[in-house]
Design brief:
This protein is mostly helical and 188 residues long. The chain has helices at 8-25, 33-50, 69-74, 76-92, 100-113, 119-122, 127-139, 149-183. It has eight helices and no strands. Helix 1 crosses helix 4 (76-92), helix 1 crosses helix 8 (149-183) and helix 2 (33-50) runs antiparallel to helix 7 (127-139). The longest helix is centred in the last third of the chain and has 35 residues, at 149-183. InterPro entries: DUF1184.
């Protein structure tokens, strides 16, 4: 997310693709504390990006494609695998953090993204300010759940609507345009 933060639409597309891929891979995604935490992290970073302005007169695009989209997508499978493995680890309830598959996924991601480390700073975004809050969100994953299922579902629906509504609206408008063009019967 930090890598493609020069364009909000790219952040949303990245989050949506990862969300759908993770949900597809998970057998019990509706009960997963990892999936709920991932969604909350998405929403936190998205909300933060919507309300800040780039420093040094930098350009903040919305509606285009991030200049680092290909690099972010190159690490996509490793991120997805890491989340899937973390979910298995959390479900087993173990407190010792030794799964090598998660470590391997993290190393692959770090290796691929190392060359773009200064991207968010160059774009004027205070990554460090968000990073500590995001880490706290993930660390609390190992605490016992205190929210009831109804509250979690309501939060999930609210976050999904807030984040992905712009993409759904964009697609609906595009589909509406295509249908109106096809009704003109220009070819007949």
């Amino acid at each position: 997310m930090f890598l493609v933060c020069d364009d909000i639409r790219s952040v949303l597309l990245f989050c949506e693709r990862l969300w759908l891929a993770v949900e597809k891979d998970m057998r019990q995604h509706h009960d997963s504390p990892v999936i709920e935490r991932l969604l909350r992290v998405f929403h936190y970073v998205y909300f933060y990006l919507k309300h800040i302005k780039p420093k040094n007169g930098g350009v903040f695009r919305d509606g285009g494609t991030s200049v680092h989209w290909k690099l972010a997508m190159a690490s996509f499978e490793d991120i997805n695998a890491g989340i899937r493995d973390l979910d298995v680890f959390v479900r087993e309830g173990s407190r010792e953090f030794t799964p090598t598959s998660i470590d391997k996924a993290l190393k692959n991601i770090e290796k691929k993204l190392r060359r773009a480390k200064a991207v968010s700073k160059a774009n004027g975004f205070a990554r460090d300010a968000m990073e500590s809050d995001v880490l706290v969100m993930w660390k609390s994953l190992f605490d016992k759940p205190t929210e009831d299922l109804w509250t979690v579902k309501l939060k999930r629906l609210g976050i999904l609507n807030d984040m992905f509504h712009p993409l759904y609206k964009e697609r609906a408008e595009a589909n509406s345009f295509v249908r109106s063009i096809s009704r003109l019967n220009i070819c007949n």
